[in-house]
Every structure is written in C-alpha cells, then in structure tokens.
UniProtKB/TrEMBL annotation:
Annotated Pfam families: HAD
Keyword Signal: yes
Protein name: NapD-like protein
Molecular function terms, GO-annotated: metal ion binding
Keywords: Metal-binding, Signal
Database matches in Gene3D superfamilies: HAD superfamily/HAD-like
UniProt xrefs under InterPro entries: HAD-like_SerB (IPR050582), HAD-like_sf (IPR036412), HAD_sf (IPR023214)
Domain of life where this protein originates: Bacteria
Leader sequence segment: 1-18
Any coiled-coil regions, as ranges: none
Length: 331
C-alpha cells in the first residue's frame, strides 16, 4: 500500500482524533459538544449508532448557513450589479421602474417588487447566454466586487466555523452536499474552492437549458423554462432526485429549511442530526430571525427545534470567529 493511501485510510479511521480540536472557531459550548458527540457516536466501530460509510450523506443549505444572506443574498447582489453593468447597452430599460430602482440603489423598491420583480431581474441576468458564459460572468463578478460592509470578496465570506464543520464531517467519512434555494449554476462556480464541495454535490434552483450544435460544438443556452425553486417542501424532492437517498443530517438557518431537516430526521435507519444557525450577532454579522433583512425568516424552526431535539447555533455565543481573518481581512 502506498504511503499516501495508508495515511488517508488512517485519517478516515481515526477522524480528527489526532487533532486537539477539529473545530477551533467554535466556542466550547453545548452546541459544539453536541456536534462532536453525534459524529463520534455515529462513526465509532461497535457503536449502536454506527452509520455505514455508504449512508453518511449530510446536506447543507447555503444562504445564511454557509455564507451570509443579508442585507441581500449574494446572488441577488450579483443580479443587481449585472443590471448596472448591462444597463448602458439597453436604453429600452430606462422606462422600467424596477430597473430604475436598481440603478438608483433603491433596494426597498426592489424588495417591494416581490417575487415577480426578483424573477425578472434573474431572467435579465441569468438567461440568454451559454452556461460557460454565465460561469465566466460570475467569476468576473467575484474577482471585481466586494461586500460593502466587510470589504471582503464574496467568495471568501464562507463562515469559518461551518467550513471547519464540513472538513470535520468529511474527515469522518461523511459526504457533504449543498441543497439550497440559490441558483445551481451560480453556486457551482465557487462551491469547490470555498467549501470543498464539488459541483456534482451542489443542488439548487434551476431552469432548463437549450441544446444546440454549431461550429463551436455543443452548447447549452440558459433559459427560464421549467424553473424549479429549491426551497421549502421542494428541498426533499430535490434531495431524492439528485442524491437518491435520505440524508442522516441536515443543516439550515431558516423556516425554508424545515422540510429538509424533517426529511433527514425521518430517516428510519440512522441516528440523525439537525442544526439551525440562528443569526444573533449584529456586531460581527447580522441579528435577525423575524422579520429578516432579506430572506431567512426563522420562527417556526426555533419552536420545532425544541420539540425535535435539533441543535440551534447562537452565532454570538457559539462562534469564536465568523469569517476567517486570513481570507477576509477587509483589505
């Protein structure tokens, strides 16, 4: 056996036990202890709660769970910035009240346009191009834009405690998936570099693409046809469609994630785990549950967590750091 293979086998066998602390960005609170206890009990040979490797599928929401979603979700911020970039090429937009609100930074008016208005912004900025061209636009946006409050690149704003949790789970043989209301093509551009989650393990909202065969070969054109919103009750449907099995753990932050947590909790073949991130830190991030600044209302979930035994992360109390200072220094 090669040394690299042997080392990988040993790491998988012993998880993170060789490290003094696999979750150093977490304070030593009951929340952290509950996470560690569940992972240890479900991966230890001989444990009555042992979960076989081929069943260790865990799912994470993205917006508000792995990175911020306030004051706007990052994808909506991308759409707003794209509208501003594209506006000079579309003089016909000048009479559109929604576009005018975007150009004037009137986010209240944008929000007041409701789901219909937001879908229009998505249609203008996420369709009518090849999948490759869209990915290039997202990468260019990531390279040239920063969060106004932190001064940090958006693709460096993954929550450090959650990134450590993803690593900890994978070190113990769990397969990590993103199941989110965010656009599937948008998230897949940065999921691997940010979280170590490859594109094929990212599931989000999507529309169908059109196939074409031309001089450049096969191309897929993004459209708004057959739109699927991967939120609420649609999340278990997407999990079944893309994963093919029920997860043993689910991690979210809003009432839109409850169906996903309930789906995992109903797994009859495993000791399951559920976790909700509660945004309580106005100084280092944002504090909200109801009403949220953008999305991510958490009301029913707080009540259900007590009944179901799900863990609720108090961001202010449970996290030593929110963003990795080596990645997100504001410079």
């Amino acid at each position: 056996m090669r040394k690299s293979v042997l080392l990988g086998t040993l790491l998988l066998s012993f998880g993170c036990s060789a490290n003094s602390d696999a979750l150093p960005a977490w304070n030593d609170t009951p929340t952290k202890q509950a996470i560690e206890k569940w992972i240890q009990e479900t991966t230890r040979d001989g444990s009555p709660d042992f979960i076989p490797l081929n069943k260790r599928y865990v799912v994470f929401d993205n917006d508000g769970t792995l990175w911020p979603e306030a004051p706007l979700t990052f994808q909506l911020q991308f759409a707003v910035d794209e509208i501003k970039r594209m506006a000079p090429e579309h003089p016909e937009w000048q009479k559109d009240p929604l576009i005018a609100a975007v150009l004037e930074n009137d986010l209240k008016a944008v929000a007041a346009s409701g789901e219909k208005g937001l879908l229009r912004l998505v249609a203008l900025t996420h369709s009518g191009m090849t999948t490759e061209a869209f990915a290039a636009r997202v990468r260019d946006w990531l390279d040239t834009h920063k969060d106004k409050r932190t001064g940090c690149r958006y693709d460096r704003m993954g929550y450090q405690p959650m990134r450590q949790l993803l690593d900890y789970l994978r070190a113990n043989g769990f397969k990590t998936w993103i199941i989110s209301g965010g656009g599937i093509d948008f998230m897949r551009v940065m999921s691997d570099s940010m979280y170590g989650i490859p594109p094929e393990q990212v599931v989000g909202s999507f529309s169908l693409s059109d196939y074409s065969l031309g001089e450049k070969g096969v191309e897929l054109q993004k459209t708004m046809k057959g739109a699927f919103n991967d939120d609420g009750a649609s999340k278990p449907v997407a999990i079944h469609l893309f994963m093919g099995q029920r997860p043993v753990a689910a991690f979210g932050n809003s009432d839109g994630d409850l169906a996903m947590l309930q789906y995992a909790a109903s797994n009859p073949d495993a000791k399951t785990f559920g976790l909700l991130v509660h945004h309580t830190d106005a100084a280092r991030e944002y504090a909200y549950d109801s009403p949220p600044t953008a999305s991510g209302k958490l009301v029913e979930g707080l009540s259900l967590a007590k009944q179901k035994g799900w863990v609720v992360v108090d961001m202010k109390q449970d996290w030593k750091t929110v963003f990795d200072p080596s990645l997100c220094s504001g410079k």
